[in-house]
Amino acid sequence: MRYVSTRGQAPSLSFEEAMLTGLARDGGLYVPETVPMFDRGQIAAMAGLPYGEVAFRVMRPFIGEAFTDDEFRELIAKAYAGFAHPARAPLKQLGPNHHLMELFHGPTLAFKDFAMQLIGQLFQASLERSGERITIVGATSGDTGSAAIEAFRGLANVDVVILYPHERISEVQRRQMTTPSESNVHTLAVTGDFDDCQAALKDMFNDFAFRDEVRLAGVNSINWGRVLAQVVYYFTAATSLGAPHREVDFAVPTGNFGDIYAGDIARRMGLSIGRLVIATNRNDILHRTLQSGEHRKSGVTPTISPSMDIQVSSNFERALWDAYGRDGAAVAQLMDELKRDGGFAVSQGAIGRLRDGFASGRASEDETRETIRRIHAETGELLCPHSAVGVHVAEGNMGENPMVTLATAHPAKFPDAVEAATTIRPPLPTRMAGLYDRPERVTRVDNDLAALQSVIREKIAR
Ligand SMILES: Cc1ncc(COP(=O)(O)O)c(C=O)c1O
Ligand SMILES: N[C@@H](CCOP(=O)(O)O)C(=O)O
């Protein structure tokens, strides 16, 4: 299995190389050259298997020679051992044809743990073999950062540097990143919004001298390994609801487009997914794109679902690459226009293909709060605001198929929003007791590439 860049100019790589490389050297994202397909029998056989076994079967065809079967099984087992629910990604019924997939039982209470815990294991195994030392730099709107720190803290051959937008994440998210005391963890509060942090991260990857000097690696969903690990739970959910014998729809709270893109990969592997519904908050560039055919940035507006306060949706580039018939030159031109002019018109053919694969909707702040209140009153389930955006949009897109909404974070990560909607303040799980008592460690940095690079050099020179 080889991986190629969405911009067509970087060398193709193996799974392990693509995982350690992060962003391709032409600025593109790595994607598998071909997507392996399962037949109906192989998919039917996954129903009811333990999560780790489905993870092995789904991901194995993508990893090539990087790990033996035994090694890979062991790394998967270690990755999911710390999850608090035996099913890992349990389904709950919300209504007659509507299910919620709870993806927040990992160590940092967000769906990011599914991929980050595994990536942590894969990186460690790979670095132990090579003896290399790397600097992971990540941009976060709150959840990726805490999951990355949890996965990499204390490792001897890794520094992990996280950029988050100052005052634009919840207190729990901030404390998860600023209270770990390990000396290889460095948290930077950057002036600006998540898009600024992600743009700075990509600029660092495109500065080859800096990239090579610090041996830069990335664990945002830029990294194909992140997307791959998120493909698995589409299989566990759909097969438990009758796939491959019937279709299942999914509604996905969406920001950087990594999670829903993983669903698209599952569908291309042969899983009977009907519609993939993009659910956005007021930062609705993806919903507007599907409606109008025009992909155009507007400013990022802070919302009660801060992890989705994103307008430059990194993985949409992967979907465009597919929609433009895998034409790297066309994608490179669109990305230049996005950077230079703030947007571009999607071609007729490409927007048609995107509309065939994806539906979309958005939730206002009031709709999000009302959904949290109503679902709690009707079912007893407390939703985090991101999951509530998903449920609201799912309800407007119900068809014949069962609908699964992805619950992407635990309500206790966003206690203010949940309390405002329900009067209930969701407590943190006991394993996180003490989060409010520990001292915080964070460095304020301006949104300036040279300033960020200089702070990173300082932090890793220990
Ligand atoms: C809680 C939560 N929900 C949804 C999303 C959106 O996921 P994606 O960026 O993969 O679209 C994020 C951030 O990524 C998140 O942290
Ligand atoms: N919402 C994310 C944003 C980064 O997304 P990623 O999937 O590309 O890492 C966050 O919580 O940081």
From TrEMBL:
Protein known as: Threonine synthase
Listed pathway(s): Amino-acid biosynthesis; L-threonine biosynthesis; L-threonine from L-aspartate: step 5/5
Give the sites modified to N6-(pyridoxal phosphate)lysine.
112
Under PROSITE patterns, the record lists:
DEHYDRATASE_SER_THR (PS00165)
State whether keyword Protein biosynthesis applies: no
The terms under GO molecular function for this entry are: pyridoxal phosphate binding; threonine synthase activity
Q: Key word Glycoprotein present in the record?
A: no
Q: What is its EC number?
A: 4.2.3.1
User: Which InterPro entries would you find in this protein's record?
Assistant: Ser/Thr_deHydtase_PyrdxlP-BS (IPR000634), Thr_synth_N (IPR029144), Thr_synth_N_sf (IPR037158), Thr_synthase-like (IPR004450), Threonine_Synthase (IPR051166), TrpB-like_PALP (IPR001926), TrpB-like_PALP_sf (IPR036052)
What this protein catalyses is: O-phospho-L-homoserine + H2O = L-threonine + phosphate
Alphabetically sorted, this entry's keywords are: Amino-acid biosynthesis, Lyase, Pyridoxal phosphate, Threonine biosynthesis
Name any one Pfam family assigned in the record: Thr_synth_N
Provide the top EC class.
lyase
Residues forming coiled coils: none
Occurrences of domain Threonine synthase N-terminal (ranges): 2-80
To which protein family does this belong?
Belongs to the threonine synthase family.
